[in-house]
Every structure is written in structure tokens, then in C-alpha cells.
Amino acid sequence: MKTKLVLAAVVFQVLALAYMAAGREWILHTGHTIYLRTAPVDPRDAMRGDYVRLDYPISSVPRALWRDGLADRKDKADSIRPDTPVYATLNLDEDGMAELATLSDRRPATGVFLRGRTERFYSWNMAGALPVRYGLEAFFMQQGSAAEVERQRWKEMRGVPLIVEVAVGRDGTGVLKSHRWDALGVTLTFDNVDWPSAPRSAGRRSVIAAAKLVLTNHGPQDLAIVDLPGGRSFTLIEAARSGKDEWRWVGADQPAPTAQPENIIVLKPGQTHLVRIDLRDPAWFVEKTAKPLAAPVRESLSALRDDWTARFRFEYRPPNRVASHALPNALVLWHGRLPSRAFTPRGDVD
């Protein structure tokens, strides 16, 4: 009798796995195809084989995008239990590239959406973003392939997003199909100046004066970029590890200048373009977000050199297709958002 129960349990598990596999296979062949920009981390798990660990911008959802029952819990976010089912509504561009529109605990009636589950939200992170997993965080590959992707990430493809192709079922289930490197990458370094008031004990006696952002065409075809005056093709955003936003770029609400023909630059395959941003220019200062004052204090990034929690990143944001359709070389103009690696006011880059 005991043997029969064990056999029955094994058969049930096999059938359940077969059912799940069949469902995922069906989605692969019939699901709606979308693309997500991501970056690979942690390439190997010795117990499970080679895979690339993936991290997505849509996996960290700011409160402004919470809807329905989630919106009702904005002031008591730590009451959101781990593994709560949620649905990420997506906006798709003409190429199927997806960006997060909203996150809800109710299944959308229409549109393309991904089903996910929340992860633990700690009470000390009450001002932060809600972490969500979608079952797309591990991409299994052939033996050795994941390690090669990770090597490329830190070498010739440094600063280049990995794009994954995802099939999405009618219930929001996502299944990974393939991956490729994006055509455009960005790397970040700094120009430093002496810090006259640095204490003798300071390990670094300089501060960042300017950011040097290098855009590189990693694709096989010509690629056009936009370089607006004053570095305004980029925006500055906070990237605090806690998820709590304490600083805000003073230019966040100011629209970028309209791109002109002379701002368009065509990069041949392998060609680079340098954008230098003077961080001593008040246009690139930041201010506190909490309890805004009538005249908020504005600081340069170098003034925050002793704030060990402050982290930022630049993000390249060219005009969309509608705004750039009349520009020269519009057909090869790169579209989307391309973030740099995060950095501290002391000039340390992740």
C-alpha cells in the first residue's frame, strides 16, 4: 500500500511538471512577443546548471505607478505580503520594446500585461519601490554560455543592455525565448579636481568635476544618436540602494531642448561619441526631495561627497519616433532609455 502511494505521488508530480511544460510551450508558440531591456548578473548556480540571472527596470516599481488595492496601501506598504499576485501593465513601442505603465493587484481587462508576485517590502524602506518578480529572472543556457555572457558584460559589452525576447500568455505569464545585446552602450568616467579642504585622513583628495559619458555603436549597422547642448540628451536620476529618493535633479521638470539637425550624430559600427557634462554647472545640481522648502537648498554632486548613501546614474533619453521623424537619419536613430552604471558623489562607479 505504501509503495502504491509513493508511486502515485511520483506520477502526480511528473504529470504536473508535464502540464506546466506544455503550458509554457504553448505560450512560446502563441504568446504575444515583447522585448525587455535588462542586465545579467550572477551567471552560474552549481546546483542548477548554467544560467544568466536577469534584473529588470520593471522589477522595482515606484509608488506613483501603484494602482487599485496597491494604491490603497501606499501609506502602509509593509502590509503588502510577499507572493501577492500583481499585474504589470506594459506600454509597447513600435519595435515591441516594453516599459512599465502601472502595477495593480487586479488583472487588467485589456492590453499587454505581465503577471508577477511581490517580494518582501521592509518597513525601513517605506519611501521606496515595491520589488516584484515575474518568473523571468533566470535564463538557462548551454554549458559555458552564461559565463561567456557575463564575461562580455564586463569586457567588450560593458555598458550595453541585454535585450530578452519574451512570449506573454493571455493570463500574463511570461516565458523567455531568446536574448541579444542592444546596439547602443554607454560607459561613464569622471574628471576630478583637487579637494582643498580634504582632511589628511581622506583616502581620496579630489572630487568629481565633470562626467564623461561615451556612447558606442556595438551593432553591425550605422546608428544615429542625439547630442543636445549642455548634455541635455541625458537626465540625472537617483539610484539609492534603499529605494528611498532623497535627492532630485533640479532639471527634472524642465523639458529638454528640441533636437535640431546639427544635434544628430551618425556612428559607424564600433564608433564612439563623448558627451562631457560639467557637474559644477548649477543646471546639474540636486536638491532634497523631502519636505520641500520655499527656497530649497541646491547642491553640487561634489558637495555630497560625505553622504555615503547617495547614488545616482545618468540616463540617455533621445526624442521618440514622433518627435524625431523629420530629423536627418531618423530611420537609424536609436530610441529608448539607456541608463549608465550607478555612481557615488565621490566618483565610485558600480
Provide an overview of this structure.
This protein has helices at 2-30, 145-154, 321-324, and strands spanning 32-41, 44-45, 49-55, 60-61, 66-67, 85-92, 98-104, 113-118, 130-133, 138-140, 162-168, 174-181, 184-194, 206-217, 223-226, 234-238, 247-249, 264-267, 272-278, 286-288, 298-299, 312-316, 338-339. It is mainly beta and 350 residues long. The protein has 2 domains: 32-181, no CATH class; 184-339, Immunoglobulin-like (Sandwich), CATH 2.60.40. Strands 1, 2, 3, 10, 11 and 12 form a 6-stranded antiparallel β-sheet that branches. A 6-stranded mixed β-sheet has the order 4-9-8-6-7-5, with no helix packed on it. A 3-stranded antiparallel β-sheet has the order 13-14-19, with no helix packed on it. The chain starts with a helix and ends in an 11-residue tail after the last strand. Mean pLDDT is 83; it is low at 14-20.
